[in-house]
## 1
Amino acid sequence: MTLSKDFGFGEYEVMLRDAARKFFTDNSQPDQIHRLVADNPDLHRPIENKWVPEQWQEICELGWHSVCIPEECGGAGMPLVAAVAIAEEAGKAAFPSPLLTTYNSVAVLKACNTEAAKLTLEKITCGSAATLAMTNQKGSWETTDTDVSVINGKLSGTAYFVQDAQKADLLIVSAASSDGISLYAVDSNAEGINIIADGIIDLTRDQAHIVFDQVTATEIAGPGQGDKALTKAMPAILCITSADMVGAGEWLLQTTTEYATTRVQFERPIGFFQAVKHPLVNVMLEIDQAKSLTYAAACAYEEAPEQAEELSRMAKSRASDMAVFSANRAVQFHGGIGFTWECFVHLYFKRQMHNQVLYGDGKYQREKLAEHLIGADGNN
């Protein structure tokens, strides 16, 4: 397998990344995010969905939400690495928005390759945010596991672990019937839908389980085709999630390194001591490994689809392990202040902990990778 130079990350992708970096720097500084989502440290506080919808509208005006939507549907038609670059910057800013869930939904809709899916992509191009409702109560990320059923075109049941559900205008729902798994698009405010917020540790996101009661929906992938579309889109979903972790890891590393150069103990900056400097180097190495794998997987998704699952699961495995390590070291090396609510580190710590299990943690990804490479029966 030979991938494009720099994983297809060309001039236009660089310009897009730099523009995104400036936008998040101007609109999503850690103190701003902390005031927005962490204003109440009460353990028994109500579950709230805190974000700035006006910033989402700005992103839509810039066209970043539709970078990977085909031109025929009104998008920019750029490769996945463009969305990965923006996702990395969003993770670095711990930005609360439905941007990443919309990217995931776009990947699924493109994999459906039906007229109904293309019409739904056009709605997203016009500014509608989307999210996936594909997971059962057990938290299984298998594409055939859903607690939603469809009878006569109407959805009933419950979808669990739905990301940024309260921000989404559109739901891409996986539903089972006797003929197999289908996919449906439905407005989040449609009659018969009840969005019930979940309490999660990540303050920069919301999560919910959604109850469907005889909901009329638009079929975007027929029976037996829905799970195939989800499987085809999964490498892109894993890449987007991994990029978010890479970005958050970069912020944690930079912030902790700066702290290690200013915090003095025993008359020396704590970064002078090997017990601090060596683990920080290890964090840097893990971030670089996760980032390289993520961009390689995103490139393979476009250029070598037969390698996309392998590389994307490697990326998510490495990124999940890195997320835990980078967050742990950041809290540890910030010492007593690192455990406090006032320290911005906890925003990224919690985002990393949420991401590392989203769509399967490192262990899960390695198990799926082994099945893919060796075969479930242990034979090639």
## 2
Amino acid sequence: MTEENMNVLDHLEELRKRILIILTAFLLIFISVFIFIRDIYGWFTHGLDMPLAVLGPLDIVVIYFSLAAVIALALTVPVVVLQIWLFVKPALTVKERKVTALYIPASFLLFIGGLAFGYFVVMPLVLNFLLELGTGTFEIMLTADKYFQFVLRMTVPFSILFEMPLVIMFLTSVGMMTPAAMKKNRKYAYFAIVVVSVVISPPDFISDVLVIIPLILLYEISINLSAIIYRRRLKREQNENTPVVK
């Protein structure tokens, strides 16, 4: 067996180890969450003015398992990021390890921040609008399955969008993104943000603004972070290319 083949096998073994750690963490968190799933279910539904219906006895189990799985997945995010970082760590310099290590808690905070923004800001706006739209016309009855599908659609996209600053920082650090390019394409980014915000929020001006402004702020923060990373990368490359005078 050649040395190259041995290196590939070592990498595959290391990857398998990281995946097993992630799956184990997810399973343990899932079990822990499921123990308190009725309390968690009550917390998610405490603001509703009507009880949630189920269409069959198995729906109860499916809903509990789905809710526990989603929460466990969210809580496993820092473990996933940590294992990815540990996998690529040998290829990083000491300085890169220190910088990228900050991505681990930051990614979790941004992920939770996106979930919180979707759940506490966007979801109530959309839900109240839809319920008021049907008042007097339809007999409204919410099933637990449809309600939690709605919750996921109103929260998960924001948890992903809120990771934008970290993604931009990473792309800048590897040379795939520059702050100048982001500034040049700002109007297109703003247009995309407005379109996404209008699609997922109720059709009224206030709701649209409440969604658009945070996403635009995230984009502007990403530009500033990209500029910092870009300057540091240029400085590092300049130092590496400067000949040492003996």
## 3
Amino acid sequence: MGLIVDVFAARSDNFGYLVHDTATGRTAAIDAPEAAAIKNALLYRGWTLSDIFITHHHIDHVEAIPELKAEYGVRVVGPKAEADKIAGLDELVEAGDQIQLGETVFDVYATPGHTLGHVVFHDKIGKHLFTADALFSLGVGRMFEGTPEPMWNGIKALRDFPDDTLIYCGHEYTESNARFALSVDPDNKALQARAEEVKALRQAGKATIPVSLGTEKATNPFLRADDKVIAAYYGLENAAPAEVFAALRKGKDSF
């Protein structure tokens, strides 16, 4: 018994995810970017949607809620801090809460920054981490609503999970993220290898996700804002990690 994760493309560059509890057959969509893509994935797998877990309020993560809820009568779970921005939520969660999908338990973590109420879902037993737009492979989301220190602290908390945790993020941005990462950390051998792997995957039309957290710890500069190598790139050797994180995010915004 355990969790099966189905990964598929949605919209122009979103990832869609179905998570299926094999013990009970309950199936959740992680976010609701596009009804047609989710329905096609359900049909292909032969699963019936029972739940939707929402990470944040942006339209490309919630747009399909009304259609899916009307068709399947699903339970929709989402961040309490963004309840006023997301129509159709049935259950509100915040950091420290747990939600259940059949026999699978997800822990909820706060990752403010991209949006103030952004949350992520962690299946500790199965080692699956659904980070949406808080943490990407080789990057993080744009800081639309938050400030650097809380965003850094949220990301740093995820870094403490085991290296074999698998990350499932919200968008296929890995190739462009790799170019920026190499610009600030050009001598990183692990990053060079990951960039080549990503290039090959994209040329073959394959997704770059999931990726292990261990790989991200070694290659993602945003997870290493407290690393002297990254700080030195910006001349911030004596600065707090949050200041380095802010410099990284500003650098990526204009890259």
## 4
Amino acid sequence: MIPSFLVLLHQIMRASLPVMEAAVRRCEAIGDADPVCAPLAAYLAHHIDEERDHDVWALEDLEAAGFDPKIAIRQVPPPSVARLAGAQRYWVEHHHPVMLLGCIMVLESFPPSEEIIDQMRDRSGLPEESFRTFRLHGALDPQHSADLFDCIDRLPLTPYDVDMIATSMIASMESLTECIGALRPIDWQTRRAA
């Protein structure tokens, strides 16, 4: 199931950057009318740079495991992935971009430990090179999570803002749980020789 999970990661990460970019544009459009927007846009712009090409990492890991990344790209994302990304895009565009912080909190706060990654590698029989995305996120996400919580602490949030973030966080957890629950083996058809 590791290849299927890497495809899922690719699908989620591929959707994340455009949503964050939309949130920056929305913050800029709202402007000084909301004191949350300028520091939120600065945080998101920095986070966009940190997350750039992570979706490519998942494809490279699949290739290192002997799977064709073109087949991964052709996989139709399940409805749960569309709900995860789509809800955030809707809230960014039609309500308030601060809601995106709830989703980022879910995606950045629970990185895999080295021990868990080692167990996944050993049980799967896949080469170490196919676990780079997991290992890099295990190393990077604790700092990303700390940066996120620092941003939240510095933002002039109202109780309503906190409720919006919580709504997004709960919806993101539900969608992500559904994404993982829907994982199925992929018919790779043209798996390359390892």
